[in-house]
Structures are given as C-alpha cells and as structure tokens.
Amino acid sequence: MEIGCMWMRRIRLRPNSLITNVTTPIGFSSSSPAFRDPILCIFRKRKTHVQLSLFHFLRTHRRSFTTAAVSPSDTLASFDCAEGADIAEISNKSSKVVLKGMNYSELEKWVQSHGYRPGQALMLWKRLYGDNIWAHHSDELEGLNKDFKSMLSENAEFKALSLKEIITASDGTKKILFKLEDDLIIETVVIPSDSGRNTVCVSSQVGCAMNCQFCFTGRMGLTRNLTAAEIVEQAVFARRLLTSEVGSITNVVFMGMGEPFQNIDNVIKALDIMVHDQGLHFSPRKITVSTSGLVPQLRRFLKESNCGLAVSLNATTDEVRNWIMPINRKYKLDLLLQTLREELRFKHKYKVLFEYVMLAGVNDSMEDARRLVDLVQGIPCKINLISFNSHCGSQFRPTRDEKMVEFRNFLAKAGCTVLLRPSRGDDQMAACGQLGNPGLVRAPVLRVPEKFQTALEVSA
User: Could you list the residue ranges forming a coiled coil in this record (predicted)?
Assistant: First the structure.
C-alpha cells in the first residue's frame, strides 16, 4: 500500500553518475549498511528511459539483504517528505493519447478537438467500458463513423496493459499478471463467489513504500505509481477476460499492490471512470479503497468520493503499530481515529471498514480485543479479521482459528459488527499481503521490540 507522503533521503554520487536521487521505503535508516549502497534503494522521479533501464539492470544484479535490522528510532528522523509525486516517469513510446487515462469530460473535449460531435465521444466511451465490448482496438468499435475510427487509429492508444499470465488457485481465485509499457509487472486478483459477488482486487502502484512488516508487497519497496489508465484497465481486463467464466464482476477493492492514497490523484480519477453510469458503472458502494492511514489524503478522499473506505489497522497500541506499520510513526492511532470520527459526521449512512490482520503473539490477545473495542467507539464501522497469509522469509505466523473465533466473539458481544475474512488464493500467492515479487533487493526487516521476541520464537 501507498502513502501520501514519501520518506526520502537524497545522496550525491560521483559527478558522472546517471543517478542523483534515490527514495527509501519507510523503515530504512541512513545509517544502515543497506542504505549506503544507493542501488539498493528505490528510484525517485527519473526523466529518461535509459536511467530507468539502468536501474532495473542494477537492481537485478545486486546482493540480497532481507534481514537488515533497523532500529525504529532511526527510521523517520533521516527522511524528507515529498508530497504525492509519481516515483518514475516513463518515456512514452508514441505521441498517441491513452484513452483510458481520460475521464468522460476530458474524452469529450478531446474528441471535439478533432472535429467530431460530443455524441461520438459517448459512443466511444460505451465501447471502451460498456455494452459488453471493452474495446482494445479500433476494429472493435462497431457502429462508429469510419472516419472517426480512422482518427482514433492514428491518434489514440486503447491499451495501457499487456496480459502476461493468468494463474488459477485451487479455490478458483484468479491472479492476473500484467506487463506495463516499461516492462514492469503488476498483479491483479479476481475473486469469484457463488453468491454472484465477484470482486476484482486492483493495484495502484508497482511495489509499495509503506514497508508493513507482515506484507510481501512491502518487501519490494516502491518503484512508481500507476497511471489512472493502468488502474482502470485492470478492471476492464477483468471483465473482458473473465466475465464469461465467473460471471459479472460486481465489486472492486483497491487492496492489491501499493498504497492507494500515495497515488491519490490517479486513484480518484480512476474511481470517477469506474462509477460512470454509461461505462463500467460500478456502484460507489461496491468499490472499496484501502489505506494504511495517510491522514491528509484520507480527509480528501472522504470529501471527494462516495466510494467505500477501508483502513488497515492491525494493532491497538502505537508501540506495536510503529513496528509493524511504520507509517504510524507519522500518523499515530489517536490522530487517525479522531480524523475518522470528525470526517464521518458528514457522511450519511457510511461505515468505514477496519482491516485487522491477526498475527500470533503480536496483536491477537484478549487485551487487544478490549482495546480495539475502545478504539473504534464513536466511529461507524465494520471490522474484518483477516488471517495472516504466510510468505517466504516472514517472521510472523497466523493466529489459530479457535483464537480468531474467540477474538471475533468478544468484539461481537461488545456490539461491534465483525466478520472473519477467509483467505482466498493463498496457494498461488494471490491472497491478502502476498502479491508482488520483491526479487533480490528488499526493504529492511525492522528490529522486533524485545517484549515480542519470545512470542515470535514460540509462534515459529
């Protein structure tokens, strides 16, 4: 997941170096050995394809450092905050406009700028997103003016993604791997349901800067934001590829790779396209955007969007959340929860979804359950208890099923609306917290607070 604010340190290299700025995931320290090698860090905004290619070459030829111990006290002091910018600029291989990067009003203006009527824009929009067409080429634009189609062929790009692979888990969950124009890979998940509630889980970034300690995607660090077109087309592809197999895709969750609120501009634009009633026509109540807790962007989202909000909470004390979710060192629990209380007063019949990944011996005690009840007081909410999905190199273990039930029952008895969310697709690394491929270069594992070291050893 993403952050409205990036932690970064700039390092001056040799004068003839191509690389002058690097970006660290949350959790890096400027004093850590890993940080002294700038190739092990993640790029900030770059301006040439050559530099980006060099980064990928170097990134795949460096040693692994998966167990670096970083003191929590070191992690925030050394970083500057760079608000919301894309992490990489990708060279455009052509001058063609990407159609799915425009909302409807922008598309209408663009069509008119080429001498065509607004009605042609609506017909094009419906063929991109509606009428069970989901066009990927001008040849699929049946019913449109021949000259208009010719103009589109010359000036517009229909696809922002290329399909690489579809992997099917034993429970029917589909993990789709997409290749981007710069050859980076993102993952999207389609979760079918017998009830007809078929969900597409979309990514908002390549990697993630949040460095949540229990999340496999967080091991990657952040490479760049996705464009609005790259976000929207994940949903378009899901419908185009899988509707005939699993049925209509009815729900969207922004719970894939990345922190959506760190890419807030493109996410809000993508939401606008997804809910348009002449296109994909998802109900705002069936789209949920998940955040690790970027407070300024959270406020903006609640003011500008009617889509659902999920907050990845995962701890009931600042001590634990500072460790497993380093963003908490900037936006503490009290600030996050008080912001929700204030903002939700203006949202009619709106409930926030709290996600709570249960980690054995870390956040699953009955004391945690009692604190959680107190924390959510005054906030219209539902709570999803999520079993931790294991991955290579993880120091955490899932809470036992019977203990999860006990935890759930305590919350329910206290008056909370609470659900146990089963894992889906975990045998193919398609479940919550399992997406992505960190490769050899990984964000650091933070030092375990002394009081939890024994618990982790026992749970192992």
Answer: none
